[in-house]
Structure formats: C-alpha cells, structure tokens
C-alpha cells in the first residue's frame, strides 16, 4: 500500500468497485466520523452500505484528487445506486482517515449548453506556490457573490467572458451565468448560500463546501474552481438536498 494520502484515498474509493479489502486499512477503525447522512456511523456503517449494493453494480473513476494539509479531496464519477458525480473530503490524523464528507448529484443525461460534462477539463494542479492566494480569491468570491449577492463585484473576479462552466444547466462565460440566473428567477427557483464550511485548495484548484437553500429545500453546495492568473477560469459543482433529521443514519450532520 502506498503511504501517499492521495493514492490511499483513490485506492479506497476504487475498492467500492473492486471489493478489495486492503485499501480499507487506511481508515481508523476506532474513529471514523461519517457525514454522509445516508450512511451509518463508523466502518460498520460504510460496510453495511457496500453490502446493500447490487453485486457488480458499483463503478468508481476518480478524475481529480488534491490535498490541503490533513484533507484530501476528490472529484469522482460513480455508479453507486445509480450514476452520480461526487466530491469527497477525507481528513487524516496520524496517517489514518478519521472523517469523511461528500456531496453527490445524479449524473445528467447530456452535456451542458456549452457541451461540457460535470467532469471534463483540466485535472492536475499547478501554481502550487499560489495555493493560499487562490484560496483567498475564491473565498472572497463566494462571500461577495454567492453569500451576499454583491453582483456589482462579479466582473472583477473574471477575465471577461473567458470562463468554462460545467454546471449541467449553465453555458460558458459570464453571459451564460447571467442568462441562467435570469431563467431561474423567471421560473421562481431560488438559490441562497448561507454559510461556508470549508475552503480547501491545492495550487490553482479550490473546493468550497457551503450550505444554503435551493428551490426551497435545505441544500449542500460543493463548488470547485480553477484559478488562472488571479481570475476564476473554470467551475464544477454538485448540489445535494439535505434530508430531514428524522431520515439521518448518523448524528454528525452534513458538515
């Protein structure tokens, strides 16, 4: 087994598909805090979900993997009780995984209006010396635009209309974003970010985990941004409805 946390996480996720047991050794068996609310606590909860999977149905292809201090975060193409796109965050402590968060969205049947999927685009981090600056830029963007709606500041975060969009409903560019927001407003669909929980980055990739409300339902937003020359150049995301507390399989909360 590799001692590299990124490789360990990729192997652990692939084990969902292969059934291999060795990669699971990276999980601390006495302390594994689960934040996927459909999964029971600890390794036992994780194992129970795997047992419930129809045999041979799981497929796992991790497309992006990054590390920020004790956190490893991934962007994965899943077939896990149906096709889904997911972000996963794992926290390491003393060389073992002790905590897990994720956000899953059903894979759309087709590409977005610009022909992009939820997963394609660059996969390798660069500008590693700019990680802190890029995290600060993205944190400011989320606070200004998504949480507080200061739309007069929007254009300052972009290089004109040079912006690649992977949200399944939205076209490229600020023009595509504007058109989508207008269409949502016309349809009465509201989207509100209320609290940012995590900002994680490696080089020019930054992942933000936030909570809020989408179409009137409590929701978790995971947004991955690629930064180029101090501007936001690309965006991927998943949106997941947070179930009512009565349906939670663990008491740890989504965040």
Automatic annotation (TrEMBL):
<dbReference type="Pfam" id="PF12680">
    <property type="entry name" value="SnoaL_2"/>
</dbReference>
<dbReference type="InterPro" id="IPR032710">
    <property type="entry name" value="NTF2-like_dom_sf"/>
</dbReference>
<dbReference type="InterPro" id="IPR037401">
    <property type="entry name" value="SnoaL-like"/>
</dbReference>
<feature type="domain" description="SnoaL-like">
    <location>
        <begin position="140"/>
        <end position="235"/>
    </location>
</feature>
<protein>
    <recommendedName>
        <fullName>SnoaL-like domain-containing protein</fullName>
    </recommendedName>
</protein>
């Amino acid at each position: 087994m590799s001692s590299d946390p990124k490789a360990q996480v990729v192997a652990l996720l692939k084990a969902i598909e292969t059934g291999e047991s060795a990669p699971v050794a990276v999980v601390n068996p006495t302390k594994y805090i689960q934040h996927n609310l459909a999964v029971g606590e600890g390794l036992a909860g994780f194992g129970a979900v795997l047992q419930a999977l129809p045999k041979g149905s799981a497929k796992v292809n991790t497309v992006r993997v990054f590390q920020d201090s004790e956190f490893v975060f991934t962007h994965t193409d899943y077939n896990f009780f149906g096709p889904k796109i997911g972000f996963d965050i794992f926290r390491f402590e003393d060389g073992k995984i002790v905590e897990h968060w994720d956000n899953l969205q059903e894979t759309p049947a087709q590409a977005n209006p610009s022909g992009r999927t939820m997963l394609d685009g660059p996969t390798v981090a660069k500008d590693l010396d700019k990680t802190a600056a890029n995290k600060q830029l993205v944190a400011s963007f989320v606070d200004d635009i998504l949480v507080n709606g200061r739309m007069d500041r929007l254009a300052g975060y972009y290089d004109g209309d040079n912006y690649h969009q992977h949200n399944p409903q939205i076209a490229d560019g600020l023009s595509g974003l504007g058109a989508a927001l207008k269409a949502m407003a016309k349809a009465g669909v509201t989207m509100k970010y209320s609290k940012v929980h995590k900002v994680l980055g490696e080089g020019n990739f930054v992942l933000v985990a936030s909570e809020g409300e989408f179409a009137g339902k409590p929701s978790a937003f995971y947004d991955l941004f690629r930064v180029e020359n101090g501007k936001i150049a690309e965006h991927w995301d998943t949106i997941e409805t947070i179930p009512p507390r009565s349906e939670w399989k663990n008491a740890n909360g989504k965040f």
